[in-house]
Specification:
4-stranded antiparallel sheet, alpha+beta, 11 helices
Length: about 400
């Protein structure tokens, strides 16, 4: 394509070689994960939701499919899948139970990803391999009570004492905070340096001074453990430093770029599950002598849902494709995918309830759980407002 002389080039770059059609291997992967989700998750969705606990008995079954080390290299016990294949796995789990998909996404896309990207060889052998093999779950400690969207305002500190580091403070809203065997903790190591004074550490459950605090009683995603992490004079050796001291905040942003693609895939799967439930109900529910699916009002709802879901899926796969191509920057594409997919998930879940009518408001049908689960997609790993801020910065500068 040639642009007229003097015309500014567009901000969006078109990749003529991009092909998002699934390969035969990817189709098989989708089929395999879908069958697993239907067999292992579907019968237990409401039981796990009511228990408000992640079913640890599911962990070896997830590991057997490679879902605890989806993108981790095979040399470290993982499945070595691509970014698009990661999206397929998360999407198919979320289509049945978004809570389990959230746990798998948080495990793979945060703690495992941080170790894969910035861990030393010794750290990978000690921590990454057991995580990828599903021998334990991972947690990633960034958020605090006073540092949510403004992560740089964190108060958890790590001070140097001889060859050790001593961590103090509380992390909040941490997925697997009470049950993870390995935790990555982001802490301030030099407050005078601002964002350049933040570092990351990798800790094992059982480290003295490390404990679980309050477990959150949540609206949705209740089968995914969310708890406070408490650090009280928690002493770790110097080798617990993950990455370079002072680069923890920069590394965190890099982890979040990839993590947001995972949440976008989760949102797509949730929206697809809500659509499938709404369509199934509309075909079976009869009013005025015919299935409500025959009414134009319902057909238009389903058509709009299907169109938006496909758009969200393509935005998510585009961001994933760029990461697979080792694109230098994918921040904007990741934020666009996460923003659009998460808001579409909320809308799809709302329409699912509406199509179910009164039955959408009771726990005998899946609509109400999709409705409860969906809202977190617009909050976790950067709110919709933060995504718009990030996208806007890229479009017009700070």
């Amino acid at each position: 394509m040639q642009w007229p002389r003097g015309t500014a080039l567009p901000d969006v770059i078109f990749f003529t070689a991009m092909d998002l059609r699934p390969t035969a291997e990817q189709e098989l992967l989708r089929k395999t994960v879908r069958e697993f989700a239907e067999a292992e998750l579907r019968p237990n969705v409401m039981t796990w939701d009511e228990a408000q606990a992640f079913p640890l008995t599911l962990l070896p079954k997830l590991a057997a499919l490679g879902l605890t080390g989806i993108q981790t290299p095979e040399a470290y016990g993982g499945a070595g899948m691509s970014e698009i294949e990661y999206c397929i796995c998360i999407e198919e789990l979320a289509r049945v139970d978004p809570s389990i998909a959230l746990s798998v996404a948080a495990h793979n896309g945060l703690s495992v990803a941080h170790l894969s990207m910035f861990g030393t060889e010794a750290q990978k052998k000690k921590f990454l391999i057991p995580l990828a093999k599903g021998e334990t779950l991972g947690a990633w400690g960034l958020t605090e009570a006073g540092a949510g969207s403004d992560a740089s305002a964190m108060r958890v500190s790590a001070r140097r004492e001889g060859d050790d580091w001593v961590l103090n403070g509380n992390k909040q809203f941490i997925t697997h905070g009470a049950i993870a065997g390995t935790l990555v903790i982001i802490a301030v190591t030099d407050r005078d340096q601002g964002r350049r004074g933040i570092s990351a550490f990798v800790l094992s459950r059982g480290t003295p001074g490390l404990s679980a605090g309050k477990k959150e009683n949540k609206l949705g995603m209740r089968a995914s453990d969310t708890s406070e992490v408490v650090l009280q004079d928690c002493r770790v050796p110097g080798r617990a430093l993950l990455g370079v001291a002072g680069e923890g905040f920069t590394n965190t942003l890099q982890v979040l770029d990839a993590g947001r693609i995972g949440i976008a895939a989760l949102a797509v799967g949730l929206a697809q599950g809500a659509y499938d439930a709404a369509r199934h109900y509309a075909l079976g529910r009869r009013q005025f002598g015919q299935a409500i699916a025959s009414f134009q009002a319902i057909r238009w709802k389903l058509a709009d849902m299907a169109t938006r879901i496909e758009a969200a899926r393509l935005l998510t796969y585009r961001a994933a494709w760029l990461r697979d191509q080792k694109a230098e920057r994918t921040s904007t594409e990741s934020s666009i995918a996460k923003l659009y997919a998460s808001e579409i998930a909320v809308r799809a879940a709302e329409e699912c309830v509406q199509i179910h009518g009164g039955y959408g408001f009771v726990k005998d049908y899946p609509a109400e759980k999709f409705f409860r689960d969906g809202k977190l997609c617009t909050i976790g790993e950067g709110t919709s407002e933060i995504q718009r801020l990030l996208i806007g910065r890229q479009l017009i500068g700070r």
